[in-house]
Structure formats: structure tokens, C-alpha cells
Amino acid sequence: MSWGFMRGSAWKFLQSARYNNTAYATPNMFFDEEQDSASAAADSTSAEDDLDSLVLFGLFRGNVVGLRYYTGVVNNNEMVALQREPNNPYDKNAVKVNNVNGEQVGHLKKELAAALAQIMDRNLVRIEGVVPYGAHNVFTMPVNLSFWGREENEQLVVGHMKKYGYKLEPVPKGLGRNALSKGAGSSTSLPAVQLTIEQLKTEFDKLFEDLKEDDKTQQLEPAKAVQTPLLTHQKQALAWMVSRENSQELPLFWEQRKDLYYNTLTNFAEKERPESVRGGILADDMGLGKTLSVIALILTNFHNGQPLPITEVQSRKQKTNTPQKSLTSDPNKRSRNKASQGQCSETRAMGSSQEATCARSKRPKRQNVKRDSDDSDEEWLPRKTKSSPACSLPSDDQFAMALSGATQGVKKISKKKIIDKTTVQSHSKCVQELRRATLIVCPLSVMSNWIDQFEQHVRPEVNLNIYVYYGPERSKDPKTLSQQDVVLTSYSTVTHDYANNSPLHKVKWLRVVLDEGHTIRNPNAQQTKAVHSLDALRRWVLTGTPIQNSLKDLWSILSFLKLKPFIDREWWHRTIQRPVTMGDKDGLRRLQTLIKSITLRRTKTTKVKGKLVLELPERKVYIQYIKLSTEEQRIYESVQTEGKTIIGRYFREGTVLTHYADVLAVLVRLRQLCCHPHLVSSSFSSTSLAARSTPEELREKLVNKIKLVLSSGSDEECAICLESLNIPVITRCAHVFCKPCICQVIHSEKPNAKCPLCRSEIHVEHLLECPEEEFETTAKKDQKWMSSSKLDALISALTEQRKKDPHVKSIIVSQFTSYLSLIESALGESGFMFTRLDGSMTQKKRTEAIQSFQSTRVDSPTIMLLSLKAGGVGLNLTAASRVFLMDPAWNPAAEEQCFDRCHRLGQTKEVIVTKFVVKDSVEENMLKIQSRKRELAAGAFGTNKPSGSEIKEARINEIRTLIDL
DNA sequence: ACCGCCGGGTGCC
DNA sequence: ACCGCCGGGTGCC
């Protein structure tokens, strides 16, 4: 079969058949109408995927029939969902009508269904229903249908309906047709105040920021099991989270009227009380201690509003059950993991007594309540606590008192009362009594951080079982998992588990916590579905960035929180997302209320009692001048003299820029000599350039030279965009630019593009990318190891610091990766523990390096060797409070960014930066250029970009300054 | 469903 | 009687 044959309707058929399980009822087969181009456009993109760009085609009053056959009921003005039912044995065109709870109410009348089936199946239209009068109908009821779709399909849909004898009513005035183009309003409420795009955008940006200054100021002392003292804002987080988990309040947008519960958004009502949302979104900025807050929550609201007590007798360390080989290479940890696996027998015993609770709860209620509350303590406290009640009780009482301050509406709660209430409440579902374990789902990269933090913050004598559910050895037994206190796992494991019917989804969790919760924002991703289907009473989402792109991202999170009625995307979309994107002020207000009620967010600018949540400690930058040794000075001066001669000649000839590569090579050599003589590769021989070879050979040499310049780690800039090089490429004339920049130049100057720096002819096909990882260390292996003046200065600074405080961590930064290697040797000699991060490392190695450095363990490395450009802005190295910048960068901003990797939220110590600069050298001249650039950046904001000639002028002047000419 | 529709019974007034 | 009309049976898709 040729592709040409496939391209027509057959292809379309295959495509829709793929997405539609009922192959024989695939709409295309019955869609015998004009298959014009407009309809083809809609086939490929599902209208579901881009709900925001839909317009309202028109309205129609239809009928719902067959009410008496179904249990679903609707109220006046209640929203209903329309669902195609292509497998209905009586009518392949059938369209089901469901209420907000997903219960079937009836069907659309068959004639109408016949008209709708095809256009619905082909995603040409999305139809929404509101029943204007639904309360007392027995056999049929009216339904107001609104037709939504992509603008280009409007005529097709309207024409199609007309053909079946249905004329869509035009959209009434004041009701929005388009997002933000005309009036606005939802299909249920009439014209609302509309916002402009700008207003909407501002409101949207403010959505999470507004949460900062509100009433979530209650504080709660954590359980004694938490050994780290909480900061004020963390106690606030704890109070808020505990009160949300124990909340008996109706969820937002629900009202009780007589014996029914009404949803005010959809007008849906039901007898059963909607579950409180026992959880929410903790959206604190990075560094505010979300992890600690959650650990405190787990220990403080451990069971029935009670903390996990400390068992005095137990001297055993806290347990970390790891079924796989330890995540870190730490041998201590590995042995501890092994030892802890024997621990399981104890938890199993506890599990069987939980079953006993379940059986008992079927007894007559009266007796039961009391017994349960009494027994409950026994079951949930580790056995040994019983023998030493003196230990656990004071902390419980303290907790009860603290809780009375934090729980709304209840004045004074005794411990007993809480338990009675909960027991009665969940009596019907005795299963809930079995729930013990908290599941923490996080990206694999932060899993070891959780383990570290548990070890750091939980008192060692506390008997807390943690199981790391990861790796091939993990237990497939749900019971093992449900008997843990904490199970840690990764998103990919949850996803894999979901597809393979493994235990994670069988356990009834007490609590599920999603770390970096924004990772589930794609509603169609398997991962999202896997996470949504976890069974838990309490649900939390931790994220620093709750909304990344649009409102759409929120749905997955809200659905995970089991926030009725938003679990189903349709109701979220109809009641919040669309009204908001259409600029409806009421919709926005609803969204704001919603977010406010379930989110706690503090940022670095949030204030508690007028003081910033976290005040960044000071940062001090010192320059330490280095004097070269006589020998180093001799080499430096000889290279400098040679370089000055060559570059001086270029200046006289006016050919500095055409020989830019040579110039840079000289400068790099000088900068390297300031650091360590061994950095200078012997292949740097400026005389080779002078020798005339064939044009091909010459170019080859130039290109090799610039490659050396690039791979030596210097921070070269693109002369076109003035930013750091993005995909560096080399021209035939040996000038280096960002690939996108120079390609644009070549494109716009077609066909005679010239190099912006030297005006030689340039062609796209001659551009050469620098081969990514060329890491022959320029420092020769056969050279005998020696130190350098700067290296000596570094080591003595580090040694002195270690004497003062051996736990202080440092970052050592250089642009030359080979220098980092030399430093490694020196560090090793002096017995420093270090790790390294540079551009050549795989993502996996990078995360490993970052984690081991950030770890608080006593045996973690105290030094991080960092290449200047390694890692993005996000790189977080707050474990360090000292920075040693071994060589100045061209661009002061690059240095600043580097300092900020440790001087950022989460830093608790004063940060001291030391810049090593060799006196009377190219480095000192670089400082002059830096301060010039700083002035430029500060003063000339908003002025035009410098022209080509200005750039050239500036470059030439820079070179003059650098080489002292 | 106090409808519409179907189909059998029926047939001057 | 190949109609009209009556009234019972019946009822989503």
C-alpha cells in the first residue's frame, strides 16, 4: 500500500479508529456528507485538547427522554453532561445525559441524537447542557444545549444541524461568543463584568501571590518526635495542614439545605455529605522548608489527631527500609538498611491488631464507640509505650492544647473527644481505621533528600518505619506497604505500578503527598492518571510553581485532591476554566476563593509579623590579590611579551579583528598562567600561525585554535547578541557566534553575508559547531605534579577555614575545567572531601554530585568544584556558605549568578566570596572591564543595542585594556 | 403520559 | 371498510 493511497479518508479512518475503541461504529463510516476541507481540519485535533479556543456557535432547546429508567436526578438549572453511546444496541447515535455525579439521567431524543452523533464523534462540536426545569419531571425534560467548537467548524456544524431540521438560536447579546472578544458570561449566569486581557493576566499572576497576607497565621508546635525546631512560618504551615486534615467543614461551593447538599456552581444536589478535602496545596517557595513541614505533619497528625509518641525505652535508631541497594554510596547507610528489614515482623503484628478493630466495629454502636477509643491508643502506639505511659501522655496533652488553638470552631478539645468523633464518623467505613501509611511520591532525584531529611528531623528514638518503594527488589505485597508509616516512591514507579497492577494502587493510604506536584500537570499523561487513582484520605501537593503555563495546569492537581465536582474535567472547565479565560469576573472570583481555601504559599517576600519569612543572610565579596612566584612571573612575562608583539602588530595593521582567534588564544594563555602553568597546552604556539600554509590548512588551524579556546572553559560572548554563547559555531574566518544569531545574519544579508566582526564572506554550510565534549585535559599527564601560587592561596584558605569549622562547605569555581582537575589533586593531598560539577557530566552524574554535596550527612563532601557555566539558574547549592572564584569572568553577571547558587533561599549562613586575582596581570585588567560592563548595564538600560561598529570598537578597546597596549 | 402513537375493533342515526 | 373514528395499550435509546 502506498502512502498516497493512505492519505485520503482511509487515513482519517485509521486515525479515528485508533482513538475510538468501537471500530465499526467509527463516525467517518456513517458520515456520508460533504467531506470538505473544513471537516478534515478538525479531525486531527481533538476539541478536548484545546478547550480555551472554542467559540459558542449557538443554543438549542432539546429534550431528555427516558428519565424513568435511570436513577440520576437533576435540579432546576443544573448542569448536565452529554455523552455519546455508540454501542447502544437500539441506536448507534444514542447520546446519554448524565448529571454532575456521572449518574445517567436519560437520553437525548433520538431524532436530535441522530443529528448530533456524527458531529460529536468527529469533535466538530462540543455540546453542553443545562436543564432549566428538571426537579419534578417524570418522563422527559427540556435541556438547553450550547454548541461550542472551533471557529472554522462553525458553518459546517450549523449547516449540518439545519439539514436535520434544527436551527441553532443565535447567541444572545451580552453572552460571550469568544474568549475576550465580545461580552462575557458563563452559560448559566447572565452577563457579568468583563475583564480585559491585561486585567486578567494581572489577576492571574496575582492568583498565588495574594495568598501570602491572609489569616493563616495560627501556629502549632510539632510533635516531640520532630527534633528540629520549626520556624514561625513552618509552625503556621503545620497548623494549617493539621486543621485541614482534621476539618469537618463542607468543601467550598457546597451548601447544606435541609437534608440535601447543594453544589452552588453546578446546582447539583445529593443526600450524602460531600467529603471534606483533607489536604491541599503547599506552594511555599523553595527553601522555606516544605519537606520539614510535611515531616512535622506526618508525626504530629499521626493518627486520630494524635502525634506519634516517642518511645523512651527504645534506643534503636529510626528505621529506613530499603529493598534495593542504597541510593548513596555510603556504606554505613547500606548496612543500616539491611538491618532494618528485620523490623518488618513488628509492624506485621501491629497490622493484625488493626484487623481486630475492623471486626469489632460491627458490634452494637454504643459499646463499640467507647471500646474503640480506648483500644485505639493501644493499637496505634508502639507496644513499648504502654509500659511507659508517662512518656507519651504529656506530649499528647500538650498536643491537645495546641490543637484547640488551631482547630476552628471547637473551643477546647480533649484527646478523647477527637477520637470519639472520628470513630463515629468513620464507623460505616471501618476500613478507614486501617489506614496508617503515608505515601510520598517524588521525582527520583529528590528521593534521597527525603531520606536525609527524615533522618535529620526525626528524633532517633522514634519508631518510625520508612520504606523506600523503588527498584527491582521492592516488595509486591500491599500489606507490607500498608503497615509502614511512610512509603517513599518515585513518579515513574507509580506510573509503572499503575500499568502493572502492582501494590501501590491497592493500599488504602492514610495520606498521599506529591512532591514537585506540578509534574502531574498534563491531564492526559499516564503519570497523572496513575497518581489520580491512588486511594488516600488525606492528599497533599507540594510545589513551588503551582501554575506554570495556564489555568489548565491546575485541573490535575484539583482532581488529585478529589475536589468535587472538579474531579471530572468537564465541570472544572465549565464552572471555572472557561468563565475565567473568557474574562468573567465571577469566574475569577470563584477561582480565587478556591485557590485561597486550599493553598498555602509563602515566598521570599512574604512577611510574618512585619518581618520577612526568611531574611537572606549577608553576602560579602572579597578580592584576594595573588603575587606570582618568580618562576611563574618569568613564564607569564615571556608569554605576555610575545603576545604583545603579535597583537601590537595587528593593531598597527588594523587587523585585530581578523586575527581575533589569535588574540583570544594569547589572552587565554595569560589567564591560564595566572592560575597554573600546567594549564597552558603546548599546542598553543602562536608561531604556528605566522607560518603560511595552504588556505585549507590555515583555516583548519584557526578552527582548532578556537575550539581550544572554547573547550578550555572561558566564558566567551557572542558579538551579535552580547549574551553567552548559545550553540557556539565557528566561521571560516574563525569568529565565534551563537548559531541562531549568525544564521539570522546570513539569512537577512543574503546572498552576500559578511562576518559581523571582520567582513569576510560567510556561509551557513561553512559554520562549524564545536564538538561538544573534548576533554583531553590540557594539563599534561606526564608533567610532574606541582602547585601554583593561586592554588597555594586556595589551599591555605581552605585549611584555615577547616580549622575554624570543619563543617563549613565551599564552592570552588573556575572557567577552566582542567584547572578544576589540578585543584582536585591538591584537595586530595590535603585530605578534603570534594565533589565536582561541570558541563561534561551526564544529568545523572550531576544530580548525584549536587545531592551528595547538599546532603547534611557528616561524611558528605565539603567542597564542590564547579565550572563557571555548569548548571542553570536553578542550581541550588545552599549547603555552601563560601565561594572561591579562581579566575575572573568576562561578564560580571556570570559571576553573580554563580554566587547566587548558594546565596539564595535556604541559605542560613553569611556567604563569603573570595575572588582570586593575580596582581598586575590580565586578570586585574579583566576586573576593569567588568566594572565598565557593570556601569553599562546599570546606566544604559533601555538605550538601543549597540551597532556592529560599536561592538567592534568596544572589542578592540577591551583587547587594548586587557593586554596593556 | 391530563400526551402522541400504534394497531385492533368497528362501521347510519 | 383500500376509509374515519373509537378507545385500550402503551411508552428511551
UniProtKB/TrEMBL annotation:
Residues 320-330, 338-356 have a biased composition (Polar residues). PROSITE patterns: HELICASE_ATP_BIND_1, HELICASE_CTER, ZF_RING_1, ZF_RING_2. Residues 790-957 form the Helicase C-terminal domain. Keywords: ATP-binding, Helicase, Hydrolase, Metal-binding, Nucleotide-binding, Nucleus, Zinc, Zinc-finger. Pfam families: Helicase_C, HIRAN, SNF2-rel_dom, zf-C3HC4_2. One of its GO terms (cellular component) is nucleus. This is Helicase-like transcription factor. It comes from Eleutherodactylus coqui (Puerto Rican coqui). The lineage of its organism: Eukaryota, Metazoa, Chordata, Craniata, Vertebrata.
